[in-house]
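User: Here's a chain of 180 residues. Predict its fold as tokens.
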Amino acid sequence: MKLGIISDTHGSLYFFKKAMDILKDCDRIIHAGDVLYHGPRNEIPGGYDPKGLSESINQLENFYIAKGNCDSPVDEMVIKHPFQDPCLILEFNNKKIFVSHGYTESKLAMIYRAKESGADILIYGHTHIKELTAGDDIVVLNPGSTSIPKDGIRSCAIIDEDSIELWDIENKIMIDNMKL
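Assistant: Prediction complete.
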């Protein structure tokens, strides 16, 4: 089984589709927040089509969303999948996964809450910067942003039984990986 991870699509249907090309074989998709709206601090991303993006997301099954700072009640009205707030916890391949967008507390506080809940993996978004690290009994993953990366590469991630991979969605190449 595979789990696809995306974050910070900010209304870009075009880059969402690029990510889904990589994640097409995943059994579940987690979105770590900021789904439709680009937000007042960001430029409108390429392929901005929040209506089309919501329609595409609604066609998917096994899609999970952690509510982000740019996600509003209106977004929750047009997307059939519930927005989990303040966090989403799920089991996958005998791993407990804690997902939070990451805008209400520091990374250290998220790590503490994730560990307190017994999580093996913390997934967060918000920064638009990829991270894949392990230490202190927890793996920390930020898949970066599919549409407005602050580190120069639009990205997503895949978790399977024994590894986590970070992918460049425009060039369709793996840019980092870690064994679980």
